[in-house]
Amino acid sequence: MGEDLLGGRYRLVRLIGRGGMGAVHEAVDTALARRVAVKQLLAAGGLGADPTALTRFRREAQAQARISHPGVVHVYDSGVHEGTPYLVMELLDGLGLAALVEAHGPLPPALAARIGLAMCRALAAAHEAGVLHRDVKPTNVTVTRGARVVLQDFGLARLVEEPAITQAGALLGTPQYMAPDLIRGQLPGPAADLYGLGACMYLMLTGAPPLGSDPVDVGVLVERAVERGVPQLAGQERRGLPESLAGLVDALCRQDPLDRPDAASVESLLVPLLDADGERVLQDLVARCVREQAVEFVYSPPAQDSSVPELLDWAAIPRPDTATQDANRPLTLSDATRRLVLSSMTAQNAQSRQREAVNLVLRGELQEAVRMLTAVAQVCTSALGPDHPTTLTSQYWQAVCLARLGAGAEALELFSRVNAHTERKRGSEHD
User: Fold this and answer.
1) What is the pLDDT of residues 369-428, one digit of tens each?
2) Which of 20, 239, 335, 365 is most buried when burial is the number of CB atoms within 10 A of its CB?
3) Is 256 a catalytic residue?
4) Is 39 annotated as a binding residue?
5) Would you call 68 exposed, middle or buried from its count of C-beta atoms within 10 A (0-12, 13-18, 19+)?
6) Per CATH, which fold does 95-275 belong to?
7) Which residues are recorded as binding ATP (predicted)?
8) pLDDT one-digit tens code per residue, 48-76
9) Residues 285, 111: contact at Cβ < 8 Å?
10) Domain 10-90's class?
C-alpha cells in the first residue's frame, strides 16, 4: 500500500507537541510542497468519543479562520481523516515566548513592550472578529526569527455570539495565567484575555511566573490567583523598569475585569516605550537562542527508544568553549521535546528524511533541518554504524546548519569529526 496521507494530502513528519485536546505534527502538504503544522483531535474512538472536545476543536478552526491578522497563526485547511478531525496551520519558526524567557531571563523593558504590543494588537483583532482566546499564556505565543509575534492555540476560544462550552467540575485554562474572574466562573470577555497579556508581560519583565515558580498543585495556584493575585510591580524599584510599564502590568492583572484597561489604552501606553531598533534587537535575541538550541540538540540529542541500541557516546564529544555559550544561562530544549523529535524516525525512513532535511537547509529552514538531521544521525549511528556514509552525511549537514546559524566553532568541531571518521574509513579500506 502507498504512503498514508492525512486527508489524502498531508504527510506527517514529526510530533511537535501534545495538549489537552490534540497532538500537533509538522507535516508536508504534498499538493503545494510546503511544510505545515497539523493538529489532530486526541479523542479516542473517533468523532463520537468526546462531543465536547469535538465541538471545541471545530470552534478553534472557526475562530482562527475568522481572524486575519499577522499576529494570529494562519489556518489553511481542516477536515476529518478516518474519524479524526484535523486542522492545518502555518508552521512557525523561532521560539515560544516561554522558551525565550527561559533562555534569556528577564527581557529588556523595550523588548517586553514590543512583544506585549504585538500580542495586544493580535487580541484586539480577535476581539474585533468576535473571538475570545481564553488561554493567553507564554506557551501559546511564538516569536519568529523575523521578530513576528504570533498568538496561537485557540483551543479554548469562544465565539462571542455562541454559548460557552462547559464540563462539570472542569477548570478550562491555565491557572498561572488565567483571569480570576474566569476561575470564579464569570462569563469571559476581552478583559480576561488582557489579563493573560498582563501575566505574560509579568513573566517577560521578571523572568518568573506571576503566581510563583515553586511547584504547587492546581488548587494552590487557584487560591493565589483569586486571593492575593499577581504581585505588584510598581514601586518595587526594579532597575530600568519604567514606572509606566510596571503600572500597566499591575492594571492588566487587576482582580476586577472592569478595572483593567482596554486594548486601545494598552496600545497607547506601550507605543512610547518602544526602541527604534527594537525589531533588530529582537531578531538578534531569537537568532542567538535558536543557535544555542541547535548546538544543544546536536551535542545532546534525545535518548532513543531502548529497542534501538546507541553506539555513539554523544556526551563524550568535546564542546568548544565559545563566546556564544553562556554557562550561566540555561538552554531551553527539554528532554520531552527531544524525545518527540525522534518518535517518528526509523532506520527505514532515515534516508528519505535526510533528503528532506537537506532541502530544508537549502531553503534556509534551519531549525527544522537540524532537528531532523540529528534524529537521522542518531538512528543511522545505531542501525548502520558511525562510519556509514548516511551517518556521516547527516553529521556533515548538521555542521552546515550550525555554521549558518552562527555557531562557527561548534560547526568546525563537527566538520573535523566527520573528516576524521571519513579518513579512518578510507584508511581501513586501503589496509
Assistant:
1) 888 888 888 888 888 888 888 888 999 999 999 999 999 999 999 999 888 877 776 666
2) 365
3) no
4) yes
5) exposed
6) Transferase(Phosphotransferase); domain 1 (1.10.510)
7) 39
8) 456 666 776 777 677 777 888 999 999 89
9) yes
10) alpha beta
